[in-house]
Amino acid sequence: MLYPLTFETIFKDKIWGGQKIKTVLGKDFSPLPNCGETWEVSDVEGNVSMVKEGSLQGESLHDLVVQYKGELVGQHVYEKYGDRFPLLVKFIDANDDLSIQVHPNDELAKKRHSGFGKTEMWYIMQADEGAKLNSGFNREVTKEEYVKAVADNTIQEILNIEPVQPGDVFFLPAGRVHYIGKGLLLAEIQQTSDTTYRIYDFDRVDSTTGKKRELHTELAVDAIDYHHYDQYKTTYDRKLNEGVNAVKCDYFVTNVLNFNQEVEHDYTHIDSFVILICVAGSLTINAEGGYKVALKMGQCALIPASINNVTLVPDGDMTVLETYVP
């Protein structure tokens, strides 16, 4: 029988990573010197999550999808994505600016890489004073202007820069140029894809190789959405003890649950797995069948589609992201 699943964390050493995965989230990433990302729920080839606890301990997420199909992911999800689990959940600690980058959409990714594109969202968990990020352009830009800006090393002059606070949400459809600025700790929900086109890396040199990281400037040109948008930060109502929708797209729906009292959730109608991501505080998940899972900030649980009812019991104030496939 399926039950709420937790997974072993996959740690990623990054040139821009820091110590907040350890100091804020309490995850020991030794022996890595720094940790830029943790992958919490992943079916990316070579980085597949392994079940941490219970009767399925040691099983891979991919094998569970193959075995349980719609019972795990939801019938409509399985019909659409087959044996590949469709979402990837990460925590990211930017101790320095990440590269300016873009992700291809499904059409381009299928053509070039035989995989999925990468639409994603960020939820800001912690921000140092003055922390910023980039989402999109600060004006309408032509492809020719963009190519010239990359060649002239003036790309930063046309980027939209946003100051950020904890609780801010940014939705980044495939094609949107972006980078996470230094001093940010965030949760990321995205399509199952590891395809990134790096446009500019601030002329950094990797201390282990002594070389600059590879850029993908030519690949990026046809992947970019050059339009300017009035609003890049996602607006949502921050309400206490009421689930609020923050993002809804073809790939995932994400609700923000900010609670300090017990709440029951009925998932009968969605025909999808649900991932609960604790981004503040702590709670216990009580699921049908007598299963209990304790989560604290920086932890996730996957609720299989076969489980229709859960009760969330917060330990004081807690904030959870609830995400599933629409």
TrEMBL record:
GO molecular function: mannose-6-phosphate isomerase activity; zinc ion binding
Domain named Phosphomannose isomerase type I catalytic: residues: 8-114
Co-factor(s): Zn(2+)
Annotated catalytic residues: 198
TM spans (from-to): none
Organism, as annotated: Spirosoma taeanense
Gene Ontology BP annotations: carbohydrate metabolic process
Cofactor binding note from Swiss-Prot or TrEMBL: Binds 1 zinc ion per subunit.
Domain of life: Bacteria
Keyword Oxidoreductase: no
Protein name, entry field: Phosphohexomutase
UniProt cross-references to InterPro entries, sorted A to Z: Carb_Metab_Reg_Kinase/Isom (IPR051804), Man6P_isomerase_Firm_short (IPR014628), MPI_cupin_dom (IPR049071), PMI_typeI_cat (IPR046457), RmlC-like_jellyroll (IPR014710), RmlC_Cupin_sf (IPR011051)
Binding site for Zn(2+): 103, 120, 178
Signal peptide (UniProt feature, chain positions): none
UniProt keywords, alphabetically: Isomerase, Metal-binding, Zinc
Chain ranges of the Mannose-6-phosphate isomerase cupin domain: 246-317
